[in-house]
Amino acid sequence: MIRIQDLTVKNFMSVGNTTQAINFNQHQLTLVLGENIDQGGDDAGSRNGTGKTTIINAISYGLYGQALTNIRRDNLVNKTNNKGMLVTLTFEKNGVSYHIERGRKPNLLKFSINNEDQEITDESQGDSRKTQQDINTLLGMSHEMFKHILALNTYTEPFLALKNNDQRAIIEQLLGVTILSEKADLLREQMRINKEHIVQENARLTALKDSNEKIKENIDRLHSRRKAWIAQNKQSCDKLQKAIYELEQLDKSLIDKLKKELPELPDQKKERFIKEHNLSPYEANILVSEKEISEYYNSFLYSRF
Predict the structure, then answer these.
(1) How far does Cα 93 stand from its chain's mean position?
(2) Which residue range(s) make up the domain with 276?
(3) For the residues 2-22, what does the mean pLDDT come to?
(4) 161-166 contacts, C-beta under 8 A, 24 or more apart
(5) In angstroms, rounded to a whole number, what is the distance separating the alpha carbons of residues 265 and 267?
């Protein structure tokens, strides 16, 4: 349960430079009547224009950063002073004390829990979106629900006049089924993300398929080149085999004839001299050491016979 403890207002709408404070931390009902002196006071029966709506607008601004109606934040600043607007609100929930300070000209936002200030990193126009989300979660109701359930006034659009989606949102919050809509939104977002992933995966698979086809074409070309090389190599080997065979089939008589036409080598002469003429190896070696000596010796022997 949320219990508002106190509210202070300065330079907010009809409230001027003097801070006005209201203590709600009482066990009985707090009734604010107001008395418009300019219109004759209470005796004249006039209580309009005394700032009662300003109080509920200040609570709305303190909690949600916006008034009950679509008033621009800068227009909430008191027209006479046109600066130094400040609204502070203290409330309690489940034994924990919360304090909010909001201001315009200059912009200000402070949020504390049990007198400990919370870190605020985004102060765009004096408001932190993340901090406001935390406050909304803490309150457990949206600003629309606050307007139509807690802050009923003549400026609030009647529930039946709201659009169907706005009516549904308030009813879901009242019944506590907003989690279903939130889960549905999360599922739709997840479906969108999944579809994007599917598109990306299909694109990746298409790219892989194209790449594999190119690789297959390269492999086929390599196979064709390999087959051509093997065929050419076989043809060359066949030619070499044929040439070797032709060399092996040369006329042996031609080889013998060529052998006979070759001059006698020194070692052959030496062996012949030893065998035919009973010379010693030493003597034969001397005879074949010089070509002229061996030829002279040879011609001398043949001339005798």
Answers:
(1) 40
(2) 263-304
(3) 90
(4) none
(5) 6
Residue of 174, 110, 172, 113 lying closest to 138 (CA atoms): 113
Residue 116, SS3 per DSSP = strand
Q: Alpha helices, DSSP H only, in the chain?
A: 52-64, 129-139, 143-145, 164-175, 178-248, 252-261, 266-277, 281-289, 291-304
Confirm whether 31 is domain-assigned. Answer: yes
Among the three residues 140, 169, 199, which one is the final residue of a domain in this structure?
140
Q: Which of 156, 131, 154, 130 is nearest to 143 (CA)?
A: 156
Q: Is 271 within a domain? A: yes
How many domains does one find in the chain? Answer: 2
Span 99-152, pLDDT tens digits:
999 999 898 888 999 888 777 655 444 457 788 888 888 888 888 878 877 777
Cis preceding linkage at 263, omega within 30: no
Say if residues 74 and 46 touch (Cβ distance below 8 Å): no
- pLDDT tens-digit profile of 75-99? 899 999 999 999 999 999 988 999 9
pTM of the predicted structure, to 2 decimals? 0.53
